[in-house]
User: Fold this.
Amino acid sequence: MIVRVFRAKVIPGAEEKFAHKLKESSVGVLEGRDGMLGYFAGRPTSVTPDEFVMISLWRDEASVRAFAGEDWGKAVMPDEEYAPILREFFTHHYEVIAHHVA
Assistant:
């Protein structure tokens, strides 16, 4: 199983706009994808007041590649929608070695 972690820092004042885009656009892009096992979308807390996260769980590397393309290490997002409100973003991947969901 592969965990894909997308983190994004938004410009001040754009938190609600990005939260809406994350829930409406990003969730729609993930749902129904072959090999996508689940996702968690998160908004900022007081510890990270400008950073959002989208964590998705994938069956295997081939599933992530089918979703994101051959350059699957990069974020998948429509630049024209997000670029004006993002300061920076990161995408990381991890192979699961243990897991538990309560």
Q: What stands out?
A: The two ends are 18 Å apart (CA to CA). Residues 35 and 62 are 8 Å apart (CA to CA). Residues 2-95 form a domain with the Alpha-Beta Plaits fold (CATH 3.30.70.100). The chain has three helices and four strands.
